[in-house]
């Protein structure tokens, strides 16, 4: 299995709206904490080290450009 980069969510607008609601009204520190918690939950759910390392590499490269 490799990292999926194509759209893979049936209703992405619904998910994005809910994600936006999660952060609504939070100060910067609370946003950082919420983001970290969400990231750790999703990393645990994925559970595939190869996929996670591939994703880390992808975001590292995109941050450099």
Written overview of the protein:
By secondary structure, this protein is mostly helical. It has one domain (12-64). Helices cover 72% and strands 0% of the residues. It contains 3 helices and no strands. The relative contact order is 0.13. The model has no long low-confidence stretch (mean pLDDT 95).
Summarize the structure.
The protein is mostly helical and 65 residues long. 72% of the residues lie in helices and 0% in strands.
Keywords for this structure?
65 residues
What's the arrangement of secondary structure elements?
Layout lengths: L11 H12 L4 H19 L2 H16 L1
Please count the helical segments: 3
Helix content: over 70%
Beta-strand residue percentage: under 5%
Described by strand count, sense and barrel closure, the largest sheet is: none
Q: Which residues sit in consecutive blocks of at least 5 with pLDDT less than 50?
A: none
Q: If you compute it from the alpha carbons, what radius of gyration comes out, rounded to the nearest whole angstrom? A: 14 Å
What is the H-and-E element order? HHH
Distance between the termini: 27 Å
Mean of all residue-level pLDDT scores: 95
Structural class: mainly alpha
The total number of structural domains is 1
Report the principal-axis shape.
Answer: globular
